[in-house]
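User: Now give one protein:

AI:
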Amino acid sequence: MPYRRQPAGLWDHRWRALQWRALPVCALLALWHPAAVSAQSLTPDMLSPSQDGFAPRDQSALRRTAQLGATPTYGVPAASGASDSGFDSLNRNRRKQKSYPGAPKPKARGPGTPPPTPARTRATAPVAPAVAGTVPGQPTRRLLRSDPDPFAATGFYTGTFLTKAAVEVWGGYNSNPARVDPPKGSVFYTVSPELLMTSDWKRHSLIVDLRGSFSGYNAKFPPTMDCNCNPPVPVASPVPTNIDMPSFDGKIKGRIDAQRDTRINTELRLRVFTDNPGSPNIQAGLSRYPLATNVGGTIGVEHDFNRLQVSVAGLADRTTYQWSHLADGSATDNYDRNFNQFGALSRVSYDLMPGLKPFVEVEADTRVHDQKADRYGYFRDSNGGYLKGGSTFEFSRLLTGEAAIGYSMRTYQDPRLKDLQGLLTSASLIWTATGLTTVRFNAMSSIDETTVPGVSGAKSQDYSLRVDHAFRRWLIGSAIVGTGTTQYDGSRSDRRYFVEGDLVYKLSRTFHLKGQIRHDWVDSSAVGASTNATIVMLGIRVQR
């Protein structure tokens, strides 16, 4: 008879009937041997379906976890229930790679054969797979850039500006803070905050650099007494009663990239300072040093003509002095010391070869005082400038900076004041002698104003050499030597020397301990102006 297909419902009824008939047999088997139907624990193999069904996987991976140094697997590993095809929860491509024509076929490993491991050249301690980056499915670890200074401040972002802030607190002893003879020592403290902000833009640039300090001294210098009088009367002292000295130096530099080869450079600057101790510009009988403020700005254009670079800029500065407060309670103005300075600066440089860029720079300016005649009747308005030539250096980052030499001069309106002229030197070089040693050389020349009657101005030149050596990455030692001269138009000449040693112990990126010892000498042609002083300081720097 022909085959007749049975309805689907008929087979379902027959299967259910068979189940009800087998139920008593299963119950008798359970009573006879309960261990035969005991509950089984869940293992990773039960959740590991293969492409051909639910056959258990190879147990070699589980046996390898018991080896020394391997990370044991607890519970059910991730992606244990994934199929051999497609992707799993660890983002691993489990599909079998297709073999292209001509490509060698991969060799099949037998069951229980561990994957090949690279031979070790020396005995090393076992490394956890998570640290070594060998966990299956773990993404490749990205190589980090090397940090040249692991104890430098990392900073923080304020909008699009990378900000670095720091403050240094010092305490120490100065054997002669007022630079007088005979010397008188004093304990002092110094607080120096810093703030540096740099823009993080694709075009243009803005840099804010603010630095200040305040030094407070414990010693007081009362007015001296004239013992030839009866009774003795106080005499105006060349040293103020209070010698505390604040200072501030701030600059804001901006660059506008107008075109590919054209840039507009701007700068705003503010400087607060006092006369140096021992200077002949200090009035007698002061209660404290009068503050001087210099505020100014620069704007210019810089353009590249292939290797030739030309820049032109204009400068404007104003210097003002506070009233002088005397020890007897009176005050006098310093209007004759206030002046404005206007000038122009031009520079031409040529990129001769990589790392060598010679240049020629010329500057001209004029100084106009608020009062035509000073307190002694001299007309101190003047015109001046300089011409210098040099080069910038950048040889494989071993020698960087610039050095120049030239000639400067200044002529005064009053015919009684002589013209000042002489050699001009300027340098700021950094030589990386070794990976642990750095040498810095600085040179600076200037012609400054003075209040000494009959003296045109003060011509100064200073040179310093600094050597930094890293004994450890966290221990930096420095040795500094320097010299300088200041000439007051033939009436007085001062020669300065100093030796300094610094030590910095870097606890972390945030905290640094610092120590300093320094000795200064001043050899002056004026009677009683030759002095020396020793300064010992300890401090801490907090930065971020």
